[in-house]
Design brief:
The complex is a heterodimer.
Chain A lengths: L1 H8 L1 H28 L2 H5 L2 H12 L5 H5 L1 H20 L1 H11 L8 H24 L1 H6 L2 H21 L5 H18 L7 H19 L6
Chain B lengths: L18 H8 L3 H15 L2 H9 L11 H5 L8 H14 L6 H13 L17 H15 L4 H13 L7 H18 L14 E4 L3 H5 L2 H13 L3 E2 L12 H4 L2 H17 L4 E4 L3 H14 L9 E3 H10 L13 E3 L3 H4 L5 H11 L3 E2 L25 H6 L2 H12 L4 E3 L3 H13 L5 E3 L1 H8 L4
Parallel strand pairs in B: 1-2, 1-3, 3-4, 5-6, 5-7, 7-8
Chain lengths: ~220, ~450
């Protein structure tokens, strides 16, 4: 078990980071090169002003009509995504590990806050799962991959929560936490989780066309 | 969806008989389909296609944007992402290896269950352009030779005559002269100038105007005359700014049509193009044709009639004789509102000319589609019942405005007129449908 711990906490961390960063760069480069070749107009119509205008209306809660039409979904989505991104970067255990390995480190969340945020992510995943199953249109769209992704996202938070609270088998939970976190990172460039990277580009392009070409709002 | 909903026949896939779809698919084999689709994906399926398909997280937030979905009891097959799942996603997942039966259903979805109105793009958090994806499918259908018969006929007309309605060159000139003659009974010195070199305004209309609604040319002539405008129409092809090829996936023909249209104006050395009250034609000239011809923006200033009327009113070139009495409501057409942001301009005109204006809810960029645009009404009578059933939500929206007192619906778009006419009749709404030019003609001081 010690060997697995070493592997998951050492080599695999690096591997996951390299695959995540490399995969993201390669995929974006492929998209840019393909766009240059087949959708060259995209570059001509792209406008930073209108892209930003559109992005802002979609990253500020309730700034778009659709967000106002679905208040519960909007609230859960925003809180979920914030916790999902902030918690791993600012969890005390993560920052301390980094500080011990390389020195430095940065501000970190109080444990109680990280605890609540972790639980929020888990509950968010449960909410999305229930929504996926219970809403007819979402169920119709859902593929096996969508359910698996939910599990992949929930796993590092669930195992992290488990190991932090030192419930029985927490040593194993710690290893699962590291492995599942690495899996999550690796999955980003190769699955629908890539929406995290593509969001500003697709939204920005829609905003550019609506604002620059069509003088209309897209929110 | 495993459990079949309790749907009537028009909602069940493949129940509508369309000879264009049936015969077209009958000529296909799995091998032929695969080779055409593979080539299409290779040559035209670029970064946008990939980004849109792979970014969609299947959240279903686009569903409520679609009038087909809302009107069909929230049947998930009619949600925007649901239509993508049944068509382009499946084709990409199977690398084009699909059956002729699949192509039949795909064709029906892309041509008759999506109006390309882009409302869903305003509801998708990622701004995924479903109309782009549906047009990709229509392009595939065009290349496979599986297109609903009626709209394909209009595309044939475009190819043969450069207008949508098989109008012959002499009939076009004859119609203009006929309308001039009629109008001179009312205003003796009125002219409809043909081929006037160097005129300020090149006025273009859609094929159905000379064919079915020549009074619109008459009315515009009266408005132009009252404004003292220096305008002209061409005698040769290029007078028709419409474009059903844009909707059948025939991009080569769209480029030819727009080239002829622009060249007619440039050839006459006219300073700008003013287009009649049509939405899809505006999209084709302002947003699509220019791109296909390699221009970021149209090669000469191009405005929709709404912008032109508002300019005339603002500059005091036309005066209002009396206000329009009956209470009106306004339907924002997708191609000039989501497509050009002319909603406030239209409201400026209405408030200047009409006594009582009642808003539809929702309105402006969020207005519901007429159900006819995107070439859907051009797929003709076989799909009429399906069309009106697919837009009950529009009927409810109009009925709510009627409850508030609206008697007249203004829609500055030909396709919207077609769609709203069917809805008003089918749902027995008893409202009258008008163009802005109908109202202006009635209310301005005629000189």
């Amino acid at each position: 078990m010690h060997a697995i711990y070493e592997l998951a906490g050492g080599f695999l961390v690096w591997a996951a980071l390299v695959i995540f960063a490399g995969g993201t760069v390669i995929r974006m480069a492929w998209l840019a090169a393909t766009a240059r070749k087949k959708d060259a107009a995209v570059f001509h119509y792209f406008s930073f002003y209108y892209a930003l205008r559109s992005i802002l209306h979609w990253i500020v809660p309730f700034a778009s009509r659709n967000m106002r039409l679905h208040p519960v979904m909007t609230a859960v989505t925003f809180i979920f995504h914030l916790c999902l991104i902030i918690t791993p970067i600012f969890a005390a255990a993560h920052v301390i590990l980094i500080a011990e390995s390389w020195g430095g480190g940065w501000w970190y969340l109080p444990d109680a806050a990280a605890d609540i945020m972790t639980l929020t992510v888990i509950l968010g995943c449960v909410f999305f799962l229930i929504r996926r199953i219970s809403k007819k249109d979402v169920r119709y769209l859902s593929t096996a991959g969508d359910y698996i992704l939910l599990v992949i996202v929930a796993a590092p938070f669930l195992s992290g929560y488990w190991s932090y609270h030192q419930w029985s088998g927490f040593e194993i939970a710690g290893i699962v936490h590291m492995l599942s976190g690495e899996l999550l990172l690796i999955c980003i460039p190769f699955t629908r989780l890539f929406h995290m990277i593509l969001f500003p580009f697709t939204r920005g392009y829609a905003g550019s066309e609506f604002g620059g070409m069509r003088s209309a709002r897209d929110w | 969806m495993k459990k079949q909903n309790n749907l009537n026949n028009t909602q069940n896939p493949g129940q509508i008989h369309d000879i264009g779809i049936k015969r077209g698919a009958g000529r296909l084999s799995r091998e032929k389909i695969a080779s055409v689709l593979e080539k299409l994906i290779e040559t035209e399926g670029g970064a946008r296609l990939s980004a849109y398909i792979n970014t969609c997280v299947h959240c279903g937030l686009c569903s409520d944007a679609c009038h087909h979905y809302l009107s069909r009891g929230c049947d998930p097959r009619f949600s925007p992402a649901g239509k993508v799942k049944q068509t382009v996603s499946t084709i990409l997942a199977k690398k084009g290896k699909v059956s002729p039966e699949f192509i039949k259903r795909t064709c029906e979805i892309a041509f008759t269950e999506c109006n390309l109105c882009r409302r869903c793009q305003l509801y998708c958090p990622f701004g995924i352009d479903i109309s782009y994806l549906m047009l990709f499918i229509r392009r595939a259908c065009h290349l496979l030779g599986v297109v609903p018969q009626y709209i394909q006929d209009t595309a044939h007309s475009h190819s043969a005559t450069m207008n949508q309605m098989w109008v012959r060159d002499d009939e076009w000139i004859d119609t203009l002269q006929w309308q001039e003659e009629e109008a001179r009974d009312e205003i003796p010195d009125l002219r409809i100038p043909i081929d006037k070199q160097g005129a300020d305004i090149f006025y273009s209309v859609i094929g159905p105007e000379p064919k079915f609604r020549p009074q619109l040319i008459y009315q515009m002539a009266v408005i132009m005359h009252a404004a003292g405008a220096d305008w002209t129409l061409p005698s040769a092809p290029g007078w028709d700014n419409s474009d059903m090829c844009m909707y059948t996936g025939d991009v080569e023909m769209t480029a030819r049509l727009k080239k002829v249209h622009f060249e007619a104006a440039i050839g006459l050395k006219n300073k700008r193009i003013v287009m009649g009250e049509c939405g899809h034609a505006f999209r084709s000239v302002y947003d699509v044709g220019n791109r296909l011809l390699g221009w970021k923006m149209p090669p000469l200033p191009t405005v929709h009639a709404i912008s032109f009327y508002s300019e005339l009113l603002e500059e005091g070139r036309i005066e209002i004789d009396h206000k329009f009495e009956r209470p009106v409501t306004f339907h924002d057409p997708c191609n000039i509102v989501r497509g050009r942001g002319l909603h406030e301009t239209a409201r400026y005109i209405i408030n200047r000319v009409c006594k009582t204006f009642i808003e539809l809810e929702p309105n402006r960029e969020h207005n519901f589609c007429c159900g006819a645009g995107g070439g859907v009404i051009n797929c003709g009578p076989p799909f009429k019942t399906k069309r009106v059933e697919s837009n009950k939500v529009k009927a409810d929206q109009l009925a709510a405005a009627r409850e508030k007192g609206a008697e007249v619906v203004i829609a500055p778009c030909h396709n919207c007129h077609g769609g709203l006419e069917e809805i008003i009749e089918h749902y027995e709404l008893g409202m009258e449908l008008m163009f802005l030019s109908d109202i202006l003609y009635e209310c301005i001081k005629k000189k």
